[in-house]
Design a protein that fits this description.
Largest sheet: 6 strands, mixed
Radius of gyration: 16 Å
Strand order of the largest sheet: 3-2-1-4-5-6
Structural class: alpha/beta
Number of helices: 7
Distance between the termini: 27 Å
Strand content: 15-25%
Number of strands: 6
Helix content: 40-55%
Shape: globular
Length: 184
């Protein structure tokens, strides 16, 4: 089995390089949080965060939402979860930080368990087969009428297409990018 731990033992200064290298990083975090908050219309929702990382996206979501929600934040890197625990110290009663491979974790979750799913800067790290498995599991574990919000990056070989995507990517930060899950 291929090891999908692309950030194995990387944290701190090296991980911050990613943030510094990506234009509109902070704006995308805020966009994800804002879009998630649009679906939080009742208390006691259970959300899944794919790729908790250092907790930046989790913190942004919890600071945007004033409801009693529980977030299951999954990451396969213990150092990242340790950092997330530090960043989320004021929210730990609302977050379960889970060290696991996301697809393996979801296989043990009952059908229609989560009210919504969100992720930032994560899914691109998975190979094509793993991504397909992840999306199958997301469809299975998300309640009908639930939601998914994903902010990520893509790469293409064609320079013109890359420029078009980059321009589109910047524009996406100015508008909603959400898909309702009404049963995959």
């Amino acid at each position: 089995m291929k090891d999908n731990k692309r950030f194995n033992n990387i944290l701190g200064e090296e991980y911050e390089l990613f943030r510094n290298a990506i234009y509109y990083y902070d704006e995308l975090e805020e966009t994800i949080a804002r879009e998630v908050s649009l679906f939080i219309d009742k208390d006691e929702l259970i959300l899944l965060e794919i790729g908790a990382g250092s907790g930046i996206t989790t913190d942004a979501v919890l600071n945007k939402v004033d409801k009693n929600i529980l977030i299951k934040a999954v990451d396969n890197e213990p150092k990242m979860l340790k950092k997330a625990k530090e960043i989320l110290v004021d929210h730990l009663e609302q977050v379960d930080l889970i060290e696991a491979d996301i697809v393996d974790y979801l296989k043990d979750i009952p059908d229609s368990y989560f009210d919504g799913v969100y992720s930032g800067w994560t899914i691109h790290n998975l190979d094509t087969e793993k991504r397909a498995g992840l999306f199958r599991e997301i469809g299975r574990v998300t309640k009908k009428g639930g939601f998914i919000v994903n902010g990520d990056k893509i790469a293409v070989d064609n320079e013109q297409k890359h420029e078009e995507n980059y321009t589109g990517y910047k524009n996406l930060l100015k508008m909603s990018t959400i898909a309702h899950l009404d049963g995959f």
